[in-house]
Amino acid sequence: MKQPNRIKVAMRAGRKAYGYNLSFPSPWVIDIMGRLDFDYVFIDGEHGPFGLDQLEDLCRSAERYNLTTIARVPDIGSSTILRYLDRGIMGILGPHIATEADARQLIRACYFGPEGERSFGANRGTDYNAAIPDKAAYYRDANEQMLVCALLEDVAVLNNLDAILSVPGIDLYSIGPNDFAQSLGYPGQPDHPEVAKAMHDITRRIHAAGRTMQADVMRGAWISDMLLDAGQRILRP
C-alpha cells in the first residue's frame, strides 16, 4: 500500500503542511532538504523542464525522506496526469479549472474507479503490480491517499464557481494570480485592485461553501527564492 500522504495527514490533524517548491529537476535538493522535516515537495510540471525519468528520480528521493510529492501538471488530460501518477506522484494540481466539465475531468484522471477512471499499469506508481493480493483494496487506498487540487486562473471561474464546487473529490482550491489577472484584462498586474477584489470574492465563496483553499493548509516556498535569499545575505556588506 502507499505511504501516507502527509498533506492529508496534516489536514486531518488540523495543522498546516510545510513544503518547498521545485521549478527544476534536482534530486540533490531533495537529498539536502531531507535533513529537515518537511511534509511535501511541490514539482512545477507545467512550467518546469521535467522529463518522466526525472520525475521518477525525484519521487525515489522524496520517498527516502517520507516526503509527499505533488505536482502541477501541464494540462488535465487523462494521459498527461496518468504519466505523473505512474511515476509515483501522490497529489495533482490541475491548471485552468474554469468549468464544471474541467473539474469532472480532473477527478476522472486522478482517481481509480468508482470515483474516477485512472488506468492501472505495472509501474512504480502502482508498485509494479507486484504482491498486491487485493487490487480492489489497493485502488481504495490509492484514492484515499490521492490529493486533488484545482487551480482557478480564468475569468470564467466567476460565473462557474458554484458548478465547480459541486464536483466531489477536489480537496483544495487555489488561485493563480498572474494568469487570473491576465484573463481579467490586467496582464502583469496581479496586485491590481480589481484583481484583488475578484480573488477575495472567490476565496470567500469557497469558504462559504465549506471548502478549503490550498493556502489554508499548505505553506511553502520556492527553492529558487531560497537560493537567491541566501546569495543576497552573502553579498550584503
Layout of strands and helices, then pairs:
Blueprint: H1 6-13, E1 17-22, H2 27-33, E2 40-44, H3 52-64, E3 68-72, H4 78-85, E4 91-94, H5 100-110, H6 135-145, E5 147-152, H7 157-165, E6 172-175, H8 177-184, H9 193-208, H10 214-217, E7 218-222, H11 223-235
Parallel strand pairs: 1-2, 1-7, 2-3, 3-4, 4-5, 5-6
Helix pairs in contact: 2-3, 4-5, 5-7, 7-9
Give a quick precis of the structure.
By secondary structure, this protein is of the alpha/beta class.
Any overview of this molecule?
- The chain is α/β, with parallel strands linked by helices and 237 residues long.
- It has one domain: Phosphoenolpyruvate-binding domains (TIM Barrel).
- The chain has 11 helices and 7 strands.
- It has a 7-stranded parallel beta sheet.
- Strand 5 (147-152), helix 7 and strand 6 form a beta-alpha-beta unit.
- Helix 2 (27-33) packs parallel to helix 3, helix 4 packs parallel to helix 5 and helix 7 (157-165) packs parallel to helix 9 (193-208).
- It starts with 5 loop residues before the first helix and ends with a helix.
- The mean pLDDT is 96.
Key terms for this structure?
11 helices, 237 residues, 46% helix, alpha/beta, seven-stranded parallel beta sheet, globular, 7 strands, TIM Barrel
Q: Report on the biggest sheet.
A: 7 strands, parallel
The total beta strand count reads: 7
Overall pLDDT score: 96
Looking at the structure, what is the overall shape?
A: globular
Instruction: Name the CATH class.
Output: Alpha Beta
Radius of gyration, CA atoms, in whole angstroms: 18 Å
Largest sheet, order of strands side by side?
A: 6-5-4-3-2-1-7
Indicate the low-confidence ranges by residue numbers. Answer: none
Tally the helices: what do you get?
Answer: 11
CATH topology heading: TIM Barrel
Q: What is the CA-CA span between the terminal residues?
A: 53 Å
Give helix and strand order, one letter per element, not per position.
HEHEHEHEHHEHEHHHEH
- What is the architecture at the second tier of CATH? Alpha-Beta Barrel
Strand content: 5-15%
